[in-house]
Amino acid sequence: MRKYIKIITISGLFILVLIQIIWLYSSYQFNKNEIVFKTSHLLENAINAETFSRLGSLPQGTMVKSRPQSDSGKDIPEFAYMQESLDELGKPISLDTIAKYYKQILEEENINNHFCLYLLKGNSIIQNKGNAHYSFFYIETQKIPIRNDFSYVTIVH
Fold first, then answer.
1. 3-state secondary structure of 10
2. Residues 6 or more apart in contact with residue 85 via CB below 8 angstroms
3. Beta-ladder partners of 130
4. What's phi and psi for 151, nearest 5 deg?
5. pLDDT beyond 80 at 76
């Protein structure tokens, strides 16, 4: 009888610990997803601010290209065509400026964090700004496409 009580007690404790581990993991994943969503949104805001600062520096009446009719079925955001057009007009994207706006936005949100901003094409880093301080809580924003060749910007916290 005592043998069965010990087995049931140990099994119960094991199940309780397992439930706690599952709960902790689920909580971690939920919070990580929330942070990725929020930081991705903040990165989009920083890219938009940088883009509009470049648009504002263009001479009055300058036309910026949009999606050509031939690309109407492609899964490329309109924003990427505007970025390429600005690049062709001699106003390339500036990671320094995006990092400045992003840092400013983080401070406004009372988020104090180190980050590294990457401009990538495929898995190749084209350019980066900042130093990522890798930790156990590695967080990368969603990849935001900025060109129709699927180059994108992302941030690692």
1. helix
2. 64, 65, 66
3. 116
4. -70, 150
5. no
